[in-house]
User: Which sequence fits this backbone?
């Protein structure tokens, strides 16, 4: 086990060592892997629970923000400010009758929402919440994330096929073609950043950046700046959000691939969509906006130990919390942008969608990739701000 | 418990399944499914030998190229299937029995 | 213990998926079982310490090949034509008892022959596991860009050819008036 997961973070603490010694004595064998398993299980449950809450709150935020943009009130009855509306919706969905249409392919019909959920939740394993709070820092992290996220496309497609309805089928085919088309610009933009950071693991990608904006990959060079927007647009399309919500276009297809779904299966589709937005925003933050990095190296806690004389584990925990806060707040800002875009822009047509992907985004992404490679070669991997500062410093020194 | 033979056995089962699919089915897309199974069996073998006999990564490179070939093959193969269906209204392998039209 | 569990789960998924691909009569279901089998194979790669291969398997198969197959199924379905152009009754597209018997027989015979041929080559060679699971990404990249650069370039040309070829072949042509 390499030194980079949430277990290795916890194993630095004194409590872990005490419990480990006690368990090993009581059970009669080395309890390291047992404890690792228990910690992984607990943390995975926490992450899944937190993400389900964020997905639910996403629906609430969507309704509140859309209401705000349209000068309405939005949900305001259940709980303070209507915050508990998503719980009421969830209860309603669970209580609803689970209808399977007569001519549906039952096996596929039941499998499709589960595939969507599995694809989205499996990507959560490599999202870097903070430097210690990451479930599995795979050394192919971002690549694994791309592969798992494509499972959502299969789920959407099967959902459309199995419903045995024209609307669903058209929605499913649109969804799948859109998802596999927009994967290409998104992946090429990711590869451009991988080129800058020199690794596929999430920690390498985030670790190559710094806490302050001029150290982010977004401002590393002009090509990376463009790559961010290409990635963000492609991410919007991959999550089937407006202005790319062709698969569930209400005005043409009643509600797309989940027309025939009711009850909790529909809920799973909706939840998968909202959590996928969070994952896409999180990846954008981790790759381009500095991820969990906080300024002045506060995250490691070394400064707190030095200046305030705190216990090292306590100051590390404070650092982790700061990093978590930085990551989550940046992600939520992007989440707000996603919702804002949805309620502002009109929907594209199908041919415009494909034209945008294949004639504009893919060539731009390829150009960015080559541009990043040339930049790395020409300027020895220095960012544009480093070059400007050093040029200014040398110019100043020359006088 | 887990040695080379376990992986070879799995890859063997995959290969036999692929052969059976290719012989028993008459649907062109089902034949392509069988081809994918066979290619995966071969790729798994390369990776298993890399792990258990020598440590250098040439086996992984071979598996990688097999995956590349499989992707290219399925893209072109399915393109041909769709074109064939446009011409003949059928994806039965026995209908593909003439060289012209 | 972790890796043993992972191996068992992946092996069961792979083998069950492959067997169900053979067994099921529904092409769509066969595709889904094939997806399960591919996921199992990705797990097996992970057990073998081939992390990059496992991720590639996920990206290429789950994201690309399976969706392509599903598309092909959707675009070609729906003919109830039971006879071929000579008026003879066709074998059902997903096989019948006779074809399955032939296939099973062929499979068993070829299995026996394969085992017979390869056994002598394998039995004398005690396999020693290389137990360290190092990250392979950097080594793979180095090898690909140095030793295997020609194969790498050829495969990129092959992929480009496949891309253009698939687009040209399946593009809807203008109707020929006849």
Assistant:
């Amino acid at each position: 086990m390499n030194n980079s997961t949430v277990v290795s973070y916890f194993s630095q603490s004194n409590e872990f060592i005490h419990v480990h010694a006690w368990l090993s004595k009581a059970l009669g064998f080395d309890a390291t892997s047992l404890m690792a398993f228990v910690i992984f299980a607990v943390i995975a449950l926490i992450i899944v629970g937190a993400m389900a809450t964020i997905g639910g709150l996403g629906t609430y935020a969507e309704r509140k923000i859309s209401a705000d943009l349209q000068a309405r009130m939005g949900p305001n009855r259940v709980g303070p400010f209507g915050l508990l509306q998503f719980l009421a919706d969830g209860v309603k969905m669970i209580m609803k009758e689970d209808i399977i249409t007569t001519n549906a392919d039952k096996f596929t019909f039941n499998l499709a929402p589960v595939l969507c959920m599995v694809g989205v939740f499996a990507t959560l394993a490599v999202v870097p919440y903070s430097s210690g709070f990451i479930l599995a820092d795979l050394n192919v992290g971002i690549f694994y994330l791309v592969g798992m996220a494509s499972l959502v496309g299969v789920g959407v497609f099967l959902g459309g096929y199995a419903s045995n309805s024209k609307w669903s089928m058209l929605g499913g085919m649109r969804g799948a073609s859109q998802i596999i088309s927009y994967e290409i610009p998104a992946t090429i933009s990711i590869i451009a950043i991988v080129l800058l950071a020199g690794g596929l693991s999430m920690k390498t990608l985030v670790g190559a950046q710094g806490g302050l904006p001029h150290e982010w990959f977004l401002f590393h060079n002009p090509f990376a700046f463009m790559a961010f927007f290409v990635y963000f647009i492609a991410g919007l399309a991959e999550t089937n959000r407006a202005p790319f919500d062709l698969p569930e276009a209400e005005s043409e297809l009643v509600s797309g691939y989940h027309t025939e779904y009711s009850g909790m299966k529909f809920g799973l589709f909706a939840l998968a969509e909202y959590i996928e937005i969070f994952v896409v925003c999180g990846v954008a933050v981790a790759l381009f906006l500095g991820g969990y990095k906080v300024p002045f190296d506060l995250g490691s806690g070394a400064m707190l130990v030095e200046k305030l004389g705190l216990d090292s584990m306590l100051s590390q925990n404070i650092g982790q919390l700061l990093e978590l806060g930085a990551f989550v707040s940046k992600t939520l800002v992007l989440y707000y942008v996603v919702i804002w875009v949805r309620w502002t822009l009109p929907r594209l047509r199908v041919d415009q969608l494909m034209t945008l992907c294949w004639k504009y985004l893919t060539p731009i992404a390829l150009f960015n990739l080559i541009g990043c490679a040339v930049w790395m070669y020409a300027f020895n991997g220095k960012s544009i701000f480093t070059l400007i500062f050093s040029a200014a410093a040398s110019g100043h020194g020359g006088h | 418990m887990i040695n080379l033979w376990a992986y070879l056995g799995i890859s063997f089962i995959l290969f036999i399944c692929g052969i059976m699919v290719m012989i028993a089915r008459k649907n062109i897309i089902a034949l392509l499914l069988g081809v994918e199974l066979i290619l995966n069996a071969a790729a798994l073998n390369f990776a298993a030998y890399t792990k258990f006999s020598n440590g250098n990564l040439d086996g992984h490179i071979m598996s990688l190229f097999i995956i590349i070939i499989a992707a290219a093959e399925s893209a072109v193969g399915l393109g041909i299937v769709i074109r064939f269906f446009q011409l003949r209204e059928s994806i039965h392998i026995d209908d593909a029995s003439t060289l012209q039209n | 213990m972790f890796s043993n569990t992972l191996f068992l789960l992946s092996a069961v998924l792979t083998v069950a998926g492959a067997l169900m691909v053979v067994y099921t009569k529904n092409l769509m279901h066969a595709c889904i079982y094939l997806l399960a089998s591919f996921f199992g194979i990705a797990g097996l790669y992970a057990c073998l310490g081939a992390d990059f291969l496992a991720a590639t398997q996920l990206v290429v198969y789950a994201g690309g090949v399976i969706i392509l197959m599903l598309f092909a199924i959707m675009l070609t379905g729906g003919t109830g034509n039971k006879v071929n152009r000579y008026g003879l009754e066709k074998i059902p597209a997903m096989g019948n008892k006779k074809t399955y018997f032939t296939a099973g027989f062929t499979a068993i015979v070829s299995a026996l022959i394969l085992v017979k041929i390869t056994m002598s080559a394998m039995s004398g060679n005690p396999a020693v596991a290389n137990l360290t699971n190092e990250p392979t990404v950097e080594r793979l990249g180095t090898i690909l860009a140095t030793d295997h650069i020609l194969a790498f370039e050829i495969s990129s040309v092959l992929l480009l050819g496949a891309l253009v070829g698939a687009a040209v072949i399946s593009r809807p042509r203008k109707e020929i008036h006849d």
Summary: Helices of chain B lie at 4-24, 28-52, 58-88.
